[in-house]
């Protein structure tokens, strides 16, 4: 049968209608995709914001002795026999607990002790529970560096030049300066010196040295070369923190070095589902500690900020489930990963 | 590290840490920490 011109125009009209419908569907799908992306972005921002609030809240709670800041004195309560997990100088006017590194050095420096069971116990306790989550969320000096890195600067970098070699420096500080020098070098009376606190720790200078010296004339008169040296170290680290992400945590902090050793075995650790992971590297791109999370989810350098989890397009990075020990989804994932 | 051992590791470490804290308390190490912490640490602030 021959088609009439009327039939042909009808067919053309229906084809046009179909293509129009398809276009509108595609446009709607694009719009939906955009809105989903926007919702995801908002969620990511919210979750990032939560970590900042935890850091602020923790710093405020553990340094909440306001009278100390007003009068230029330090807290003298018995709670100071306990340590906080992060680097938080006990001579900070607001500090209500002790610094683990300062306490470790104080015990190692004492005549009667050759090993600091109490503080090493505290460090193992926090390390086995959280690993370097402490650095990411419960360290006041980490918070300071995070805030400084938010300052806009044209040449932002994740790492300093020589990063691969420099990142081992913190282990040298931990072993040589904290443990070996702290326990082996002593004066004629048998007392040691807190070498790390005395010559390196920028946290002590920032939250203890500056406020105490500013409010105490006697201390102002006593401040000399060592104070100037510590102040110079602090200023350099603070300036570097504007350009590079957490330079002190990456290269110098002995506490971070120690907690990092617990990352692969802590209760709070990550795992990558190799079936979901496509190796796109989005996790490493998002990670400001520059860790290839898809290869090393429990890297010694990971501070558990969670940026990689949020950046993964496949949702392949998750928290490893520790319980139950025998049969769980995570153990199946681990087996697959091991294969 | 074997998966089971990896799962047990945090429990073992936690138990050892509690033992260490207990030993430290018995040796009076917490008193040393307290004494140091309730006085201004001159070395920590860069003086002394």
Describe this entry's structure for a reader.
The complex is a heterodimer of chains A (339) and B (48). Chain A is mainly α. Chain A folds into 2 domains: 50-262, no CATH class; 270-339, Alpha-Beta Plaits (2-Layer Sandwich), CATH 3.30.70. In chain A, 59% of the residues lie in helices and 2% in strands. A two-stranded antiparallel ribbon of chain A has the order 1-2. The longest helix of chain A is centred in the first third of the chain and has 58 residues, at 5-62. Mean pLDDT of chain A is 87; it is low at 1-6. Chain B contains 2 helices and no strands. Chains A and B meet through helix 3, helix 4, helix 10, helix 12 and helix 17 of A and helix 1 and helix 2 of B.
Quick take:
Chain A is 59% helix and 2% strand. Chain A has 339 residues and is mainly alpha-helical. Chain A has two domains: 50-262, no CATH class; 270-339, Alpha-Beta Plaits.
SSE blueprint:
The complex is a heterodimer of chains A (339) and B (48).
Chain A: H1 5-62, H2 66-71, H3 100-109, H4 117-130, H5 133-137, H6 140-149, H7 163-166, H8 169-184, H9 195-199, H10 202-215, H11 217-222, H12 225-243, H13 247-251, H14 254-262, E1 270-272, H15 282-286, H16 307-311, E2 317-319, H17 329-338
Antiparallel strand pairs in A: 1-2
Helix pairs in contact in A: 3-4, 3-8, 4-14, 6-12, 8-14, 10-12
Chain B: H1 3-27, H2 29-37
